Amino acid sequence: MSRLFTALLLLRQCFAYDTLLGFNSRPLVETRPLEEIYDAALKEGGTVTVWHGGDEKNQQESLKSAFESRFPGMTLNITVDLSKYLDGKIDQQLYNNNVFVDSIILQTLQDFPRWQQEGALLNYAPVGLDKVYPAFKDSISASWYGYSIFFWSISWNTRKLPDVKSISSYGDLLKPEFKNQLVLTYPNDDDAVLFAFHQIMQELGTKWFDGLLKQNPRWVRGTATPLTILSAANYSQSATFTSFGGFNPGNNVKINFPNDANFVSWPQTAAILKNAPHPESAKLFHNYLLSSEYQRTVSLSVRQDIKSSNSLYPDIMHIPRTNPTAFARFMNDRITVERLRFFFENRLGSAQGLSPLVDDI
Ligand SMILES: *[C@@H]1O[C@H](CO)[C@@H](O)[C@H](O)[C@H]1NC(C)=O
Ligand SMILES: *[C@@H]1O[C@H](CO)[C@@H](O)[C@H](O)[C@H]1NC(C)=O
């Protein structure tokens, strides 16, 4: 009797230990074809609720329309808001045991390993996950993975700067022709912009930043705003290095990568919540995200077997002056993040203006 009891106790401790440390969290590995998951998603009601980090309400319209036209009858109920606010709201749902979001895609990369440890994420490997670079995923339990590489190049408007052939360094931006021409996101308002400044100043020092301030940049909130402003004919500013427009950011806009300091790139990271109300629909969405069909449409794929359409930059691992794994380490180092944020707040003041999510520029 007592031996049986001891055995049971041991067994219980094993389970507790495994749960606590995330052991024995082997994922469910998807084997169904997309069409079969699609059927299951439709039967479930045909809606998947997604929270996506970003700074413009309509930033993910192309993802929504790609998904909905690929899977008629499905609705991608997607909300875009700042990752730094969405993550706390996810914590609240978890704490209150009231998860109503199915899928989360955020820039706050430090949250995902924590949520995995807390058992908040679904251990589920979509088809194609095995092709994703190991550095961009939770290889053991498949609870999170990057779905697309975001990166910030130097971008400028060739109409507004007809004499500029190329901009190939951050140092170039201190030349007289860029006086009053720069539009930049406050580094103290967005941690990925903060990391961009940090990486530049590790190479070029605060002297570079002092020179930058002398150029009288226009400081804005949101990382889409600089590209919007430099692209528009009715604003005077013409160059930035804090916007993501992919390889083809629009008419009259050229991009280049810097040769004097690293630029920021990272896998925008996705997970399905374990208590997602629409698990089959979330699975359909994530299988679509990692499918070669979708991955061929993004600028830089997270999959090793898919090359970009840009022959100069075939894949994220072979672009000079960027390390796509560095951002996650930076985000984990909250002490450095806070110290840097206040360095810039002291120089620039707190971010002014409405968030572009509240109102357009
Ligand atoms: C869409 O998502 C929001 C949360 O972002 C949620 O409040 C709303 O109920 C969802 N709509 C549907 C139809 O599921
Ligand atoms: C520039 O044009 C846009 C779109 O037409 C408009 O919303 C914006 O207010 C204009 N800005 C200025 C400074 O004139």
UniProtKB/TrEMBL annotation:
Keywords: Signal. Residues 1-16 form the signal peptide. The keyword Signal applies. Transmembrane segments: none annotated. SUPFAM superfamilies: Periplasmic binding protein-like II (SSF53850). The keyword NAD does not apply. It comes from the Eukaryota. PANTHER family: ABC TRANSPORTER SUBSTRATE-BINDING PROTEIN, THIAMINE-BINDING PERIPLASMIC PROTEIN-RELATED. This is ABC transporter. It comes from Hypocrea virens (strain Gv29-8 / FGSC 10586).
